[in-house]
Each structure stands twice: as C-alpha cells, then as structure tokens.
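The data layer described in this paper is built around a simple, fixed record for each protein. We quote a single record here, exactly as it is kept in our systems:
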Amino acid sequence: MRFGINIGPVFMKVGNDRKKTFVLLSKVVGIGWFVAISITLFSVLGYFLDNKLHTTPFLTLLGVILGTLVAFVGIIRLMRQIN
C-alpha cells in the first residue's frame, strides 16, 4: 500500500481473466492511437495540399474534418469488436 491506495484487490478480482483484461486494455489503447494517427495524418495531408495548391486553410480544415470522421467510424467499429 502506497499513499493509502491499495490496488491489489483490483488485480485479484481479475484473477484468471488476466489475459482477457490485457487484451481489452490493448484494444482500448489501440483506439487512442487510431484516433491520433487518423486526425494527424489527414490534417498533415490537407496542410501539404494547401501549400501545393495555395488554398489555405480550406484543405487543412477538410483534412481535420475527414480525419475526425474516419476516427469516429473506426471507434465505432473497434467498440463493436470489443463487445
């Protein structure tokens, strides 16, 4: 016990399902990475195209919106897999 917090019972409840718990945690962490990469990738692509085509800030904003939509759809799909 450290600083009055005992996390031991939390892991003891998991018991035999430890592998399932780690699989679930890896999927949840994967969702975060998927969101970050999707939004960043589409934003950078929009920014690059804006500089090439001189359409600032239109394509950057479009990239952010598209990246957010892709991330949202990806979250829904991954959550359906988890359930």
About this structure: The radius of gyration is 20 Å. The chain has a mean pLDDT of 84. Residues 14 and 21 are 7 Å apart (CA to CA). The longest helix spans residues 18-53.
